[in-house]
Amino acid sequence: MSSSIPHLQLPAEPAVSCSNCAACCCQLEVLLISDTGVPPRFIDTDQWGGEVMLRLDDGWCAALDRDSMRCTIYAQRPLICREFAEASEECLQERSNLTTIYR
Ligand code: SF4
Ligand code: SF4
Questions:
Q1: What was the pLDDT predicted at 101?
Q2: Exposed/middle/buried for 51, CB within 10 Å: 0-12, 13-18, 19+?
Q3: Which of 24, 28, 29, 49 could form a disulfide with 94 if both were Cys (CB 3.0 to 4.6 A apart)?
Q4: Across 28-44, average pLDDT
Q5: Which of 48, 50, 80 has its CA nearest to residue 63?
Q6: 2 Cα to the center of ligand 1, angstroms
Q7: How far is the CA of 2 from the centre of ligand 2 (A)?
Q8: pLDDT at position 13, please?
Q9: CA of 25 to the centre of ligand 2 (A)
Q10: Which residues form the pocket of ligand 2, taking CB atoms under 6 Å from any ligand atom?
């Protein structure tokens, strides 16, 4: 005989965390504004001559591991990636843009 879990014991929404996210923010353009040691093979130049993270044809950053959806250069990731705060307004916006992933 199966017993059901009372509703009140379940969290309404899972907490916003990078560990339950499909790296939604890693589709944004990332300008390199300081040298953090990003390997040259991951660096591209934008139309104004600025250095940016290389993105693949589908929009994802070239440094993203597509199996784990984790950053392969975490220790050398750009400053902008370091400052993109988990659960910030921008983060929630990016997650909502990819909402179908969570359904
Ligand atoms: S910062 Fe936000 S959008 Fe980026 S990976 Fe973490 S939870 Fe996802
Ligand atoms: S460098 Fe890493 S954290 Fe930054 S966008 Fe690329 S994969 Fe994401």
A1: 55
A2: middle
A3: 24
A4: 97
A5: 80
A6: 37
A7: 44
A8: 67
A9: 8
A10: 26, 30, 53, 61, 63-64, 71, 73, 77-78, 81
